Amino acid sequence: MLIAACSSKAEALENNVVPDIDDRKSLSLTITYVYENGEEKIPLRGVPFCTCRVSDLKVKSGDASYELLKEFSKTGISFKNMSADSSNKAAELLKKVAEAKGISLLKARTDEDGKVRWRKLKRGMYVVFQEKTHTQSGRKYYSLPFLVSVPSVEPEGEVNFWKYSVEAAPKASTDEKIVPPEKPGTGDKSELYVWAGILIMSSVYLALKYYIEKRNNEINI
C-alpha cells in the first residue's frame, strides 16, 4: 500500500484480505523523480533523497497491520484508513522526528533518468523525502515527504498480492525561472576599465608630445 503525494499503481484498502509475506523475497524501493508539465518531461538528476523505516509490517489472518517503531511511537500516528491529507501530514511529522532525533537515514541521489533505488530493505512503512531543494537549468524543484509501504499491496481482480519491488513517483513542483544575480562590483570594474583606458591614452599623448618637442629642439640646434 502506498500512502503519499506521489503516483503509484499500488492502491488497495488496508482492510482488504492479503496473503502472507514471503520473507525469502528481497525488498526494494525505487523512486522516479521527473518534472511533468503537459508534454514537458524533465528527469531530475543528482537529487538527494532520504528514507527510513518508521513502522513494522505484520500480517495475521489475512490482515496487514503497521506498528510504529519505538523512535516514532510518541507521534501516535495510525496508518489505518489514512486519507491522502492525513498521510501527507504524518509524513512531514515523521520526517521532523527523524531529523530531530538524528535517526540513521538511507541516502541516495537520482541518476540520469531521475531514478534512485534502495535494496535489501526490511518490511514496514517508510517515510521518503527530498533532502534539499534541487536546482537544474535555472529552475528550483521540490517535493513533499511521503509514506510508502514495502512491500506494497497490488490488486489483481478481486485478489490482492504483495509487490516486493515497490515503485513510487513523487510529484515535482517548481518555482519560476531564476534570474542569475549580477556579480558584485561589475559596475565598479567597468568604470575602472574606462579610467584605465583614459590614463593609457593620456600617457601615450604626453610621451608623443615630449618626443616631438625634443625632436624639434634637436633640429633647431
Structure at a glance:
The chain has two helices and 17 strands. With 221 residues, the chain is an alpha+beta fold.
Keyword list:
221 residues, alpha+beta, Immunoglobulin-like, 2 domains, 6-stranded antiparallel β-sheet, 4-stranded mixed β-sheet, 2 helices, globular
Distance between the first and last residues' Cα: 107 Å
Helical content stands at 10-25%
Please describe the biggest sheet, giving its number of strands, its sense, and whether it closes into a barrel. Answer: 6 strands, antiparallel
The CATH top-level class label of the largest domain: Mainly Beta
CATH architectural arrangement of the largest domain:
Sandwich
Q: What is the average of the pLDDT values?
A: 83
CATH superfamily of the largest domain: Immunoglobulins
Run of helices and strands: EEEEEEEHEEEEEEEEEEH
Low-confidence stretches: 1-5, 7-15
Structural class: alpha+beta
Helix count, DSSP H or I runs of 4 or more residues? 2
Query: How many E-type strands?
Result: 17
Taken from the alpha-carbon principal axes, the silhouette is globular
Rg over CA atoms: 31 Å
Could you walk me through the main structural features you see in this protein, from its secondary elements to its overall organization?
The chain has 221 residues and is α+β, with helices and mostly antiparallel strands. The protein folds into two domains: 2-174, Sandwich (Immunoglobulin-like), CATH 2.60.40.10; 181-221. 24% of the residues lie in helices and 37% in strands. It has two helices and 17 strands. The protein has helices spanning 84-100, 186-220; strands spanning 2-3, 6-7, 28-32, 34-37, 40-43, 48-60, 63-68, 106-109, 115-118, 124-130, 134-136, 139-142, 146-150, 152-156, 159-163, 165-170, 173-174. The strands form five sheets. Strands 1, 6, 7, 8, 10 and 13 form a six-stranded antiparallel beta sheet that branches. A four-stranded mixed beta sheet has the order 2-16-3-9, with no helix packed on it. Strands 11-12-17 form a three-stranded antiparallel beta sheet, with no helix packed on it. A hairpin with a 2-residue loop joins strand 14 (152-156) and strand 15. The longest helix is centred in the C-terminal third of the chain and has 35 residues, at 186-220. It is globular, with a radius of gyration of 31 Å. It starts with a strand and ends with a helix. Mean pLDDT is 83; it is low at 1-5 and 7-15.
